[in-house]
């Protein structure tokens, strides 16, 4: 059964960060531009059909559901693994938090534009073969996506895995990565379900990818600073004390 105690302490803030990081992963430069064509391929339909035919959009939505399930499978396993690893890191927790925070700040500065780290600008896609047009194929592509796009979504995902490792709780780690998967996966479902209506919004996002990257970098840098200084948990409790309504979440 679900244990409500996993939502206590600093989890609400960590979950909010994970959700935002998931959304930022979706609108990153190597994910957002390929979403429509990826959905059409997974559904086995043409781009024009997905924009006009109800049946094609339903096929795209079904494919998107299984694609997100594939993503979630990998992220949940990563969350459990990170939490298990965290148990071994507890004796060096302060050092681990400081080092992780500094690394995340370095990634954040990359996205802000202070400098560029070449491997973060590459797409490491895994070729899953001809898997278009089936629910199973979409699930396999979800698995491949989660493993293969790490150079682009890695800094965001790494931040959430670090939070999971610091907590060292398997249920909380899995829950944290589930929230991240929601942040990345729900936009896929929305695009599949409302593609014609969202074309304008996606165009706006594509035109402003540079600004989105900077905002994402600022988020990473700020969270990294809080982790490096040991202030993340303190900030979480301050939020709960200042805004008691947040306690409803946890």
UniProtKB/TrEMBL annotation:
Keywords, sorted A to Z: Cytochrome c-type biogenesis, Membrane, Transmembrane, Transmembrane helix
Entry membrane topology: Multi-pass membrane protein
Sequence intervals crossing the membrane: 12-39, 60-83, 95-115, 136-161, 173-195, 215-240
Pfam families named among the record's database cross-references: DsbD_TM
InterPro entries: Cyt_c_assmbl_TM_dom (IPR003834), Cytochrome_c-biogenesis_DsbD (IPR051790)
Localization per Swiss-Prot or TrEMBL: Membrane
Main location: membrane
Start and end residues of each Cytochrome C biogenesis protein transmembrane domain: 15-227
The UniProt record lists the keyword Membrane: yes
Listed PANTHER family: CYTOCHROME C-TYPE BIOGENESIS PROTEIN HI_1454-RELATED (PTHR31272)
UniProt family annotation: Belongs to the DsbD family.
Name of protein: Cytochrome c biogenesis protein CcdA
Species of origin: Albidovulum sediminicola
């Amino acid at each position: 059964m679900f244990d409500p105690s996993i939502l206590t302490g600093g989890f609400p803030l960590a979950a909010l960060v994970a959700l935002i990081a998931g959304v930022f992963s979706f609108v990153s430069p190597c994910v957002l531009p390929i979403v429509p064509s990826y959905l059409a391929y997974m559904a086995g339909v043409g781009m024009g059909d997905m924009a006009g035919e109800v049946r094609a959009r339903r096929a795209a939505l079904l494919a998107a559901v299984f694609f997100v399930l594939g993503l979630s499978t990998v992220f949940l396993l990563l969350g459990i693994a990170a939490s298990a690893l965290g148990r071994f890191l507890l004796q060096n927790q302060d050092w681990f938090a400081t080092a992780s925070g500094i690394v995340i700040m370095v990634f954040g500065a990359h996205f802000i534009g202070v400098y560029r780290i070449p491997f973060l600008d590459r797409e490491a896609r895994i070729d899953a073969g001809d898997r278009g047009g089936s629910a199973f194929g979409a699930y396999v592509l979800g698995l491949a996506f989660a493993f293969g796009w790490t150079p682009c979504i890695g800094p965001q995902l790494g931040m959430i895995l670090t939070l999971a490792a610091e907590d060292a709780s398997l249920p909380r780690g899995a829950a944290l990565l589930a929230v991240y998967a929601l942040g990345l996966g729900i936009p896929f479902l929305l695009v599949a379900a409302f593609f014609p209506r969202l074309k304008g919004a996606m165009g706006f996002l594509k035109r402003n990818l540079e600004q989105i990257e900077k905002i994402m970098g600022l988020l990473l840098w700020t969270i990294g600073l809080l982790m490096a200084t040991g202030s993340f948990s303190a900030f979480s409790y301050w939020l709960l004390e200042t805004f008691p309504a947040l306690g409803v979440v946890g």
